[in-house]
Amino acid sequence: MRENRLRSIWQRGDTAVNAWLTIGSSFAAELMAQQGWDALTIDLQHGVIDDHALVPMLQAIGSTAAVPLVRVPWLEPGILMKTLDAGAYGVICPMVNTREDAQKLVAFTSYAPRGMRSHGPARATLYGGPDYFAHANDTIVRFAMIESAQALDNLDAILSVAGLDAIYIGPSDLSISLGCAPAFDELAPVVAQAVEHILARARHHGVVAGIHNGSPQAALARSAMGFRFVTAGTDARLLAAGSQRILTQMRGGQGD
User: Fold this and answer.
1) pLDDT tier for residue 254 given thresholds of 50, 70 and 90
2) How many C-alpha atoms does 75 have within 13 Å on its Cβ side?
3) Of 33, 161, 158, nearest to 89 (Cα)?
4) In the annotation, is 46 catalytic?
5) DSSP letters of 73-135?
6) Helix H or strand E encompassing 62
7) How far apart are CA 221 and CA 171, in angstroms?
8) What are the pLDDT digits (tens) for 203-238?
9) Helical axes 26-33 vs 235-252, angle rounded to 10°
């Protein structure tokens, strides 16, 4: 089965640099994948991407070394299984708030006897290899999103679930849940403290910690803190930022 480079990166103690895909275009996904990101996450929760765009985007990413991940809309067995069957090498599941939620995530994404994933890896064998079934449980990566006060209360119980590979902090929803304005990088003190606590407990349990960031500067700082999976940009924001930079230069020079 094809190697999951995320696991190799983490085994070396390095940080994987991820980008977020919110535009439902295989060409945009291919352009991003060709730039050298360690992983690319297709966002089915908040991105403007439908089921018809998912497979072409996975195919575009699969032509490169970038690891294809999908943030699913919710903790629902059908979409989790279908996403993996389509060839995702990892899933990021939002709003995992309890130990039971984390157990369901592992069960829905694992073949028996570890879980209850139904067998039908339609495209997964094309991407992963003909021995996909034998190695999938130990190859794909399962991220539980920690983004609520309830998840904080149940943090150790969540992190102790066997088969949970990683957690992913959503700073915006975590901020809202803790009574603060949504933010990515400049967090309110109570949220920043919660982020540090989550990181420390994840490391204690041997679970990889990841986090969403609004800038490469924040991603670098959090990598230095010990996060081993950092999102450093999104396709839409990079497109907008590049356009703004060019237009600022052009319009700034009109009076010269």
Assistant:
1) low
2) 19
3) 33
4) yes
5) SSS-HHHHHHHHHTT-SEEEES---SHHHHHHHHHHTS-TTT--PPS--TTHHHHH-TTHHHH
6) helix 51-62
7) 15
8) 999 999 999 999 999 999 999 999 999 999 999 999
9) 80
Q: How far apart are the first and last CA of the chain?
A: 59
Catalytic residue among 46, 119, 197, 204: 46
The upper half-sphere exposure of residue 203, i.e. CA atoms within 13 Å in the direction of its Cβ, equals: 12
The one-letter amino acid code at 74 reads W
d(CA 240, CA 244): 6
Side-chain half-sphere CA neighbours of 157 within 13 A:
12
The encoded tokens of residue 73 equal 């809309």
The residues near 205 (Cβ < 8 Å, ≥ 6 apart) are 156, 159, 160
Q: Which of 173-181's residues contact partners 24+ apart within 8 Å by CB, and which partners?
A: 173/94, 173/95, 173/147, 173/148, 174/146, 174/147, 174/148, 177/147, 177/148, 177/149, 177/150, 178/149
pTM over 0.70: yes
CB 147 within 8 A of CB 175: no
